[in-house]
Amino acid sequence: xxxxxxxxxxxxxxxxxxxxxxxxxxxxxxxxxxxxxxxxxxxxxxxxxxxxxxxxxxxxxxxxxxxxxxxxxxxxxxxxxxxxxxxxxxxxxxxxxxxxxxxxxxxxxxxxxxxxxxxxxxxxxxxxxxxxxxxxxxxxxxxxxxxxxxxxxxxxxxxxxxxxxxxxxxxxxxxxxxxxxxxxxxxxxxxxxxxxxxxxxxxxxxxxxxxxxxxxxxxxxxxxxxxxxxxxxxxxxxxxxxxxxxxxxxxxxxxxxxxxxxxxxxxxxxxxxxxxxxxxxxxxxxxxxxxxxxxxxxxxxxxxxxxxxxxxxxxxxxxxxxxxxxxxxxxxxxxxxxxxxxxxxxxxxxxxxxxxxxxxxxxxxxxxxxxxxxxxxxxxxxxxxxxxxxxxxxx
Amino acid sequence: xxxxxxxxxxxxxxxxxxxxxxxxxxxxxxxxxxxxxxxxxxxxxxxxxxxxxxxxxxxxxxxxxxxxxxxxxxxxxxxxxxxxxxxxxxxxxxxxxxxxxxxxxxxxxxxxxxxxxxxxxxxxxxxxxxxxxxxxxxxxxxxxxxxxxxxxxxxxxxxxxxxxxxxxxxxxxxxxxxxxxxxxxxxxxxxxxxxxxxxxxxxxxxxxxxxxxxxxxxxxxxxxxxxxxxxxxxxxxxxxxxxxxxxxxxxxxxxxxxxxxxxxxxxxxxxxxxxxxxxxxxxxxxxxxxxxxxxxxxxxxxxxxxxxxxxxxxxxxxxxxxxxxxxxxxxxxxxxxxxxxxxxxxxxxxxxxxxxxxxxxxxxxxxxxxxxxxxxxxxxxxxxxxxxxxxxxxxxxxxxxxxxxxxxxxxxxxxxxxxxxxxxxxxxxxxxxxxxxxxxxxxxxxxxxxxxxxxxxxxxxxxxxxxxxxxxxxxxxxxxxxxxxxxxxxxxxxxxxxxxxxxxxxxxxxxxxxxxxxxxxxxxxxxxxxxxxxxxxxxxxxxxxxxxxxxxxxxxxxxxxxxxxxxxxxxxxxxxxxxxxxxxxxxxxxxxxxxxxxxxxxxxxxxxxxx
Lengths: 395, 611
Description:
The complex is a heterodimer of chains A (395) and B (611).
Chain A: H1 2-10, H2 15-58, E1 64-68, E2 75-78, E3 83-86, E4 90-94, H3 98-121, E5 125-126, H4 127-133, H5 145-159, E6 168-169, E7 176-178, E8 181-187, E9 190-195, E10 205-206, E11 214-219, E12 223-227, H6 230-238, H7 241-244, E13 247-251, H8 258-271, E14 275-278, H9 283-293, H10 303-306, E15 312-315, H11 318-323, E16 329-330, H12 333-343, H13 351-363, E17 365-366, H14 379-391
Parallel strand pairs in A: 5-6, 12-13, 12-14, 14-15
Antiparallel strand pairs in A: 1-4, 2-3, 7-10, 7-13, 8-9, 8-11, 16-17
Chain B: H1 3-10, H2 16-22, H3 32-54, E1 59-67, E2 70-77, H4 87-92, H5 113-125, E3 129-134, E4 141-149, E5 154-163, E6 170-177, H6 189-199, E7 204-208, E8 214-217, H7 240-249, H8 255-262, H9 268-277, H10 291-303, H11 319-329, E9 334-339, E10 343-345, E11 348-358, E12 369-374, E13 377-379, H12 387-394, E14 415-423, H13 440-492, H14 500-507, E15 510-519, E16 522-531, E17 537-545, E18 550-553, E19 557-561, E20 564-573, E21 578-586, E22 596-598, E23 605-606, E24 609-610
Parallel strand pairs in B: 1-7, 12-14, 15-23, 22-24
Antiparallel strand pairs in B: 1-2, 2-6, 3-4, 3-6, 4-5, 7-8, 9-11, 10-11, 11-14, 12-13, 15-16, 16-21, 17-20, 17-22, 18-21, 19-20
């Protein structure tokens, strides 16, 4: 709307400009139309859900919705997309218990919020804000943010849309990116173009929560490296690894947020770049890799959208602990439990992981990425990474 | 000189007093805190026994004072008092008492308790015990200071005179001893008086603690416990030696009379039967029986069925007062009690009472507290050695909704157990009367009593579950469903949907609604009845119409009432099934109110009025 108003104003200046603005205005109109279309779909889906429940009341059916079970037992491999998705097990949410009845009431409240505040007025809230908004919902108030987060995921599943479609955004920081990549970001204050080595500070380019507002323009990269810890990310930048090996470095900041996984997926799919994941050598880090490469149990409904099936685990591998004689810590009881649980996790059911996990259980040790510093600050970039990357056939 | 002669010169009799002087732990004076508790307990037990014998509601005053390095214990009652000549022996001679030779339930039995306290007091503080006793108003009070001559086990009176005392009657004893006063736990003077108050709801107990703090355990009933009467020994479980002793020393001349007069529950017929079974002449003098014949007689005891001993020898607390006692000391949601019938071990009648309190402010986890009582006396020490504890440990509590982490042992959960064994002779494991011995007959009775209250608990809890399910459904229906319906209508901008049918389904109700179809000025009406419960519903369905309906199916009985017609159907609808009745009527005669159901509770019917 803003754009077409501008174009009407400038049309009085000159014919040439008028022509140019006309094109600009058309683009704006198309974008607006696209946005309106997307928001209409979201509205229709939410109203459809309300109608379903309303109809159940009218027909005297005990109100319920059914959802796929979101458990480790109900994820299966989709050969079509090479990712792990929810299986056929469904749980029925029926108002027969107070807990579920309240959940349905909250679902209806939430739908009303998304319809009447978000979609109708083109506004948005963060996950945390939604938790606070529910303070006014009396018995439908959320007890903790995890509850409202879960309910929003449920809505994504029921409507097969993404929370961004409902204008819901996370608080969590997205990843930072550093490397030979030029991109354009659609911000609320217009388009910004930047190069992720030349135009950014030492921390790199901070990606927005809605990664689909980014357009990749050009690049000179041969691979994408996702790095768990800030310390290692900074080490590689300081050592010039991104330049020497033409690598786009992505700092995933622990368990990766959706936007982080989405940008990795897009870099892989759109630029056709191989993705390697470099984490600590402990069971929790393997789960970070799994959520990038195989999908997370909590968000398996978004696997096609977020998962990079061709991502490779670079390290730190349990076998590296032996091969590179790294300084280690003892596995805690929780670590051992986590390893055992991974052995029964369908995502880790491969000969590679079985071998590595069993080796680690024998060693009873774990190692951090930074353990390479014990062999000199350049060791990781001069020796370990080149070794591993050539072993993996990336360089 | 021969060694044996030498040794024989050293042999000499030991006085009981000397014996206990050296073995004080046997009497419960083994530690400083415990000595105080035992002393108070012995004095209070005596007071309670005396008051009950005299038919007086006990009002007992206990004060603990610190005096120098010692504690002073004062126990004062409103009992019948003790005549002046008896006072020295009652307090300062061990094994002197009125109860040892009778078979009757009382707290004291052997005549050791209070004199042991006197002995302990004189051993540790070197001070005499001071006693005031008054046997009636208008009589002077008698005061004396006593010590025990331990070599002879005889009292020594140091001072004796008449004094003024404000009480109309009663006894006051004052002892000074080494000790140590604790409060916080159950094993304390405070704790043991509190426990005593639970099983003696007819007594008022007042305690003044060393810092001057006063606690009153008020009585909750004005009626005295039923008086326990002395009885003869019961033949069940009597031992051979005992029988021979009775045979030898009886003054009865004939065996039949001996049997009838010496034992309880044996009449002439049983006596004759015993003699014939033992192949003994019933006119024989009892003392003439030899060892072999006595054995035959004992065998005969075991063969015939003798009725239980009379209950009068025992004085149970009673279910009402067990309940009142528990309520007095705990905040509880539920109390179950039971009093077992009188039973016998080794000729001694006994009975078991059990109380179980649940919920309220009890701790949700942790081991269940066991309050043990023997003849209304709280037992606070050696819980692990007691038959009552062993019986509790032997029950599979998991079957009764309490936790039992290791599969046996004291259960866990928000419960408290009260156990009372009453007997003419409680078999304690030691003279300090801390724990009841594992007598098989007693264990069986406690076990049965525990299971009885446990079953009551299980019934209560399963009823609670049903109730809470009902409450949960109420909450869904009254609070949540209407809001969901309201919100849906807000979102969709439509009318609020009728939640009635859904309510009926969730509540498992009978749902009744009309369907109508109008044509040519006639309306055909169907009444649909859906049974959402798990059981068959049989009832009468009434439809009050202004005119007689046509095309009624199935046929209805029609009764003219006032200016209308009552149409009714007898219906029976199986679980999960539905049925429909239909009729036609002129459109302007449509009923305005809901159909009427007769013969069901209104809370299980939705969509109809219930009469």
